[in-house]
Description:
The chain folds into 2 domains: 5-103, no CATH class; 117-172. Helix content is 70%, strand content 0%. It contains 8 helices and no strands. Mean pLDDT is 85; it is low at 167-172.
Amino acid sequence: MAITNEFMDAVQSGNMMRVRIMLKDSLLIDPTAAQFDEMELHAAEKMGNIYTEHDGEKLDFDVSAWNEDYLNRQMVTAVNSFSKERIALLKGMARYLYKNKADKIRNERKEIYSTSGITRKQVGAGITVAGSVAVVAGICTSHMALTIGGAAVAAVGVALIVSDKGNDKWEK
Length: 172
């Protein structure tokens, strides 16, 4: 999944309101919240904390009360009250109310990854090699940050190799 240039521009310019609006709206486009999670990570890396304290509103996590009206009200409120609690509610409502769309998106992703033929072990091996090269480069150039970063990347690669259960295809 790719982060749009428009979102990156909003993050780069520090436009918190626009970032929050784009984040919450992404849940309607992708109710699996995978796009939201990727965008949230990018925004947090560049902007720091993007959340507000919860405003104290009692949120209704009872799925029998969830409908599009409640979702829309919470979406509007989220613009100025972008708390982790409210976002968790929005994610849950989007997955629940747009279950068919979420299932379709998940199935499309699985199909894309399974037809590519890439296993976790292969991805892990590539990441481990890249991390190892960074470690060697860091040692040769006496850059501690590069060495430590490379070691961390290599550790992630090893974790992927170890977590590969046979010939499972890479799935996100």
